[in-house]
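Appendix B, Record 12. Input sequence as logged:
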Amino acid sequence: MYNISSSSKTPLHIQLFKQLKQDIEQNFKAGDKLNSIRKVASLYNLSKNTVESAYSQLVAEGYIESYPKSGYLVTDTYYKDSQTTISSVIIQENEKENYLYDFIPARLEKGSFPLKLWKRIFTKVIDESLDFGTYSSGQGEFALREQIAKYIIQSRGVKCQTNQVIVCGGLADSLSILARILHKTHNTLAIENPGYYVAKNVFESFGYNINKIPLDENGISIEALNLTNAKLVYTTPSHQYPTGVAIPISNRLKLLHWAKDKDALIIEDDYDSELSYDNRPIPSLQGLDKNDKVVYIGTFSKSLCATLRISYMVLPQHLMKEYNKLYDAYFSSVPLMMQKTMEHFMSEGHWDRHLRKIRTLNRKKHNLMRSLLKDTLCNTIKIESSGAGLAILINPTVDFDWDKLKKITKEKKMKLYFAKDKSGGDWEAIRMGFGGFTEKELPLAMKVFFKIWEQCIVK
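Logged structural output:
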């Protein structure tokens, strides 16, 4: 993950060239393929000309060569021999009611999942000579973990080897495994307030005490965290849940210093990191860590399919011994065939293409909803959070009847979602999900919402 800053005096193509050059020297070997120009441009919100200029300089200096139909490959001139290998809480269903307009903040539209492709890969995997008479690896199939490691190294700047990756059955499963591993050495979890209730519930079920840490404009308050005796903190630094705040680099470094100074651990839930629309993706907190103090957790739920229940966790090396001891007889909750299908989906390049498609599709709907909100409701609303994920969070700026809003939306068969319901704090906002709508459906749903909103303003 590269740090490309438009505010820097150094031209963008030079920034990209220097960081690509360093990455090639340290992490690539002869014959490795670089990402396509289009992919890099999309990933960092750069123009194709900028990326082409950086690649041209790499070609000129002999780091890479361009091959027809193959793309850009690393030359053997700078080959470096390296030892590095690239390597439950049940979600409650909605009430059994048919909503005409459901603004669910964590859903992709039905047609976005590549069903035909998935079925084709699944069928191919079934035909392979797999041993169905044995148990699959409890840590997850090695080839899938290798693909996950490669992906998060390239896209999120995570530092890991394949043996650190654990395939899990969703966030709650990841946290449950972690809570059990740490139970002997930790008894308190610090969490953001407001924050994601799933983490609180999981750790409470294992007997942990919970310290709620307030937020400020820079995310979790490091000053407040320092006043506690906690040596374990759960945070969503790239897109805080539910406020949307991103922890700036200065506070990320302060948080890492806290972990080093207190001999503590940080659980980084990289929530919504793949769906960023306004800015370039922020590199992971784990990638900045030099002291093995961060547990990194990610999931495919928001960008591929929630019902697959595939997540992953990267443990620091010093926790792997305890994991292997406690989970020696553990079998992954993700079925073998699901793991093998996901492995091929990633290794054949379909995941990268799908992610580009999903990001583009939802950027359009995000921008459409934000424009409609601003143009129609004007100064009667404040947009609390936008620019990432599958929802825009809003609050009224005028006297407003919340009870009336909930009553009318129910009568109109409209489902709205509220921050308090999932964060357990006092902070409230309406979570306007756009992901589940098609681009054609969204304006009609918003038109109905606007009429209801007008009725709830206290005159």
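The chain has three domains: 12-78, 101-112+352-456, 115-351.
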